[in-house]
Design a protein that fits this description.
By secondary structure, the chain is an alpha+beta fold. It is built from three helices and seven strands.
């Protein structure tokens, strides 16, 4: 590995770029990442045995045992251990992950979907002998229809 460092005028120094296009690293995580420098990625790393840490940014640099992400909003560089990385999601140019919706909005959407499914699958109790009675009692059906 070269001892030369590169400063692109941004105040962040990193080792000179390595060539991962050789037979010993063919198909490796390092080669895949270095072939996609400049891509926006989300990296999921395993910390310990159960904690998954997620980091996102532009793939800035790749070394044998690390990678560097540039985080646009905070204008910072994040150095990640390449051997703890489990998943890398690549985004198309100009695309970014959608912001997560609030848990209340997601809950409200789930409830609305559930009620809609109930409306379409539950029949009103038939008049007469009740041979084709629905799974829910009339009172339960009315509560679902009222949204309580």
């Amino acid at each position: 590995m070269s001892e030369t460092t590169i400063d692109n005028g941004n105040g962040f120094n990193s080792p000179a770029e390595e060539d991962f296009n050789n037979t010993s690293l063919e198909g490796s995580m390092q080669q895949i990442l270095s072939d996609n420098l400049g891509s926006y990625v989300v990296i999921e790393s395993l910390i310990g045995t159960a904690l998954v840490e997620e980091r996102a940014g532009t793939l800035y640099s790749v070394g044998i045992s690390y990678l560097v992400l540039y985080e646009e909003t905070s204008r910072t560089y994040i150095v990640c251990d390449i051997f703890s990385i489990k998943f890398v999601t690549f985004y198309l140019p100009g695309e970014r992950p959608r912001a997560a919706e609030s848990s209340n909005t997601m809950r409200e959407q789930a409830i609305a979907t559930y009620r809609s499914a109930l409306d379409s699958s539950i029949r009103k109790p038939p008049a007469g002998n009740g041979r084709n009675a629905p799974r829910l009692s009339r009172a339960a059906y009315d509560r679902v229809k009222q949204g309580s």
